[in-house]
Amino acid sequence: MVWLKSASGVYTAKSGYKAQGETTITEEAPVPETNIDWLANVWKLKTSEKVKVFLWNSLHDALPVGKQSAIRNIPLTSRCPRCNEVESVAHVLFTCSYAKKVWTLAPLAWRFDPSPVITTRNGQETLRLIPSLHPTGVGPGTLSASICWDLWIFRNHLVFQKRDFTPEETLLKATREAREWTISQDQLPKPQSHANRIAQDPTLDPNRTCMYTDAAWNPESRCAGLAGPSSSHSAPDTSLTSPLMAETLALRSALNSALHRGINTLLIRSDSQNLINLVNAKGRHLEIASLLNDIYLISSLFADVKFKFIPRLDNSRADYVSKQALLMYQT
């Protein structure tokens, strides 16, 4: 691939690959979107975590569409399998004739015309504000996010399995998934106004596995001792910049352990109130961003997982194990 700079200062990439029956195309170098309101457009949307991660990738143009294959000189067709236009992320989700038909049929409060959409950001910022019609029972942004997800899923069915679906089938599946997700959120137990101490909490579900996590951190050596599943496992770690990072690492370790043991329903208890509040709010934090992403993705693999703050006195066993792990590592 050769990058060329025009007189206007725009870089272009020429792909040396030419698929059978195609002409060599020149693609503009991808320019990352800037000034995106990630909370409004992704993380605060009322939809599932897998859909949020998908939207995050789509706004980064990080989906393996034909245009990206051409830019990277990957020997795959750069054309849309439905309309033979150059396939970009915005094309798959908005401007393809198939996507336009789906959006025309969508039960939105007012008509969405995807024809002027140039980037994924343009489409997403418009759609998240459009309410759904009353019979669907979902809020603004939920149905549109589900439609984008299923447009991508059915595109992959066509490309890899040669299975084609009608626009009506795509919309029906997206509407059903959005409604089911919304109903499941309404059925979640409401938090109590006055939480009891953990030692006095009744066992709500005898089939739910409970794990305690904690971490002991030394600021001089930047080492940490981690207490993991059921406070029966410990492991040291190094090059950690803060106690919050150590606590987050311990929590992620507990999730991984539970997943490998085939546990489906899980309650994790930690005495790090900042971390528990952050995870329960699906928040973002620059220092531990990658660890939080891992936690959110792993959590989605469980049938049900909860995170609860407990006082340090009620987490004494995990606290002891983490301190012993740190002491053993430093001696």
UniProtKB/TrEMBL annotation:
InterPro entries: RNase_H-like_dom_plant (IPR044730), RNaseH-like_sf (IPR012337), RNaseH_domain (IPR002156), RNaseH_sf (IPR036397), RVT-Znf (IPR026960). Gene3D superfamilies: Ribonuclease H-like superfamily/Ribonuclease H. Residues 11-103 form the Reverse transcriptase zinc-binding domain. Residues 182-202 are annotated as: Disordered. It comes from the Eukaryota. Residues 240-325 form the RNase H type-1 domain. It holds the Pfam family RVT_3. One of its GO terms (molecular function) is RNA-DNA hybrid ribonuclease activity. PANTHER family: POLYNUCLEOTIDYL TRANSFERASE, RIBONUCLEASE H-LIKE SUPERFAMILY PROTEIN-RELATED (PTHR34146), RIBONUCLEASE H-LIKE SUPERFAMILY PROTEIN (PTHR34146:SF11). This is RNase H type-1 domain-containing protein. The lineage of its organism: Eukaryota, Viridiplantae, Streptophyta, Embryophyta, Tracheophyta.
